[in-house]
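Researcher: Going back to the complex we discussed earlier. I've cleaned up the inputs and rechecked each line, so this should be the final set. Can you rerun the prediction on the complete assembly and write out the structure?
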Amino acid sequence: MSPKTLYDKIWDAHVVHEDDDGTCLLYIDRHLVHEVTSPQAFEGLRMTGRKVRAPERTIAVPDHNVPTTADRVDGIDNEESRIQVEALDKNVREFGLMNYYEMNDIRQGIVHIVGPEQGWTLPGMTVVCGDSHTATHGAFGSLAHGIGTSEVEHVLATQTLIQKKSKNMKVEITGKLAPGVTAKDITLSVIGETGTAGGTGYVIEYCGEAIRALSMEGRMTVCNMAIEGGARAGLIAPDETTFAYVKGRPHAPKGAQWEAALAWWKTLYSDDDAAWDKVITIRGEDIAPVVTWGTSPEDVLPITGKVPAASDFTGGKVGAAERSLDYMGLTPGTPLAEIPIDAVFIGSCTNGRIEDLRAAAEILRGKRVKDGVRAMIVPGSGLVRAQAEEEGLADVFKEAGFEWRLAGCSMCLAMNPDQLAPGERCAATSNRNFEGRQGRGGRTHLMSPAMAAAAAVTGRLTDVREMMGEMA
Amino acid sequence: MDKFEKLTGIAAPMPLVNIDTDMLIPKQFLKTIKRSGLGVNLFDEMRYNQDGTEKPDFVLNQPQYRDTEILVAGDNFGCGSSREHAPWALKDFGIRAIISTSFADIFYNNCFKNGLLPIALPAEAVEVLMKDAEKGSNARMTVDLEAQTVTTSDGESFSFEIDSFKKHCLLNGLDDIGLSMEKAPAIDTYEAQAAQARPWV
Ligand code: SF4
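Model: Rerun complete. Updated structure for the full complex:
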């Protein structure tokens, strides 16, 4: 047998049919559905009289629009948001979907946090969702990617997708990370290196000692942003860390099934002599805590750096950098660590898991949010929230002056009332710093949870290592 | 789905790189449960002032580009989210083809499901087409899917690559869900085999 990559192995296990030109019908093991990208797909089924082929493989949860304030138990004020969430409720019932976490279920949360938490995401699976950050699930060694609404409809109707195979890219992070450097810094640094189109046409497998050393939470953070590097999916081969995380989850296999699953999962790795179309290697030791300065996730610099000038770039990037600097209201040459902020957002499918909250709490313990800074923590799921309360993290946040919210996407994309005002500057743990992403005219700097917590305390972008010095 | 065969129309230049899906259609317009009516909000934040008046500098607000059917854009068009609202908004505005050096993967796929043709060409070709688009409404560009060519108003022609299955579906306006449903027996067989091999899934 010819050597294969992990991607090759998962792909081969899911091909239903292959045409002469390589167009494949790929079987989908898990289909996650949220309220924003699904109404038109269900409407399409209704119009054509089609059914959902595998309601037991379809998992639905509202997350993008839901308010994250405690009063949401009384219903959603915004009419359009309410209609969209109600449409999901109705579609779940009408099409007989079997796995639904409604807004006030404690297990509700961001779809990419709920899936792994409930054990829906398992190694070797194909997972899709009408959402680009489906890449998150690749952390389990499952082939997971975002699809558009027409494809959502296609999966609902057929439990398959029409696909052509992508190319294989290996991103290796060697060695160890320095203190204060996290999974978020890895994934941002990779995008800084490859650019936002560097992964287009590829599926990335992240590997190397620094990746192996990450927890599942950290691995999810890394894979989550594969899409920001242009890649359709990011993968990490499953190992003991993965198995330990999966074991005992509500929908993970049990007993003899577990043993059988484990035996297969252990074959899911890239063969030593597998062929790669592109390889990138980064030394873990070279990665610093980073922040973004512009309006593209590739605009990454170490926190010790300075705001660049448009003339530092070439080609189409010159104009883009000019536009970014103008939008972000930044002057070239300003040290990044001197940029004042107005708001802090800790949450999202990139960094809304328990480990992220622990990292933020570590920095915030016994400290206060700087006067005038609005700071918010939005746990990725109701269960993450409950755990953080149990561990006493919620008290740390509240005492520091953070708002402690219910689970949802919240200010990651500001579809609910959590938004930046024009010109407001935010230290955010989410994944996109696009113009207007967190509210029209809002300015976003992406960073790790620890860095965002540090910024909350000082009121400016801050090198978290300075505060770690204080703690030691 | 609408067919796409051949189109001669006004092309607008948008040389900006990394035009993302949040620029194409900001999130406040994702609350719709319909596919139609998004054209007025295409490029909303670039196109309108906060008070809803038009920004006169924005290319699609200029008189000669109001009836644009083809966009010529900078690298990595459509990056960001999977929202199909982006192609829906483009389509609803009247745009049928987009030309760039590269497209984000999900956006690229979404276009084909909506009768929209994304065309990837080398940087030199895009540069020539961008110049042609800058000439305004008197210059009409032609996109021919069957022949896989884009032709400037001066008759300079560039060939582009396209996946044969995607081309076939677009030329004939085929609904690919229908096509896949015809393969139901193969899906049944796969499911039966997978249930044996991986019963825990
Ligand atoms: S948290 Fe943000 S990126 Fe993640 S699914 Fe929600 S909106 Fe998308």
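Model: Worth noting: Chain A touches chain B through 79 residues (CB under 8 Å).
Researcher: Good, that matches what I expected from the previous run.
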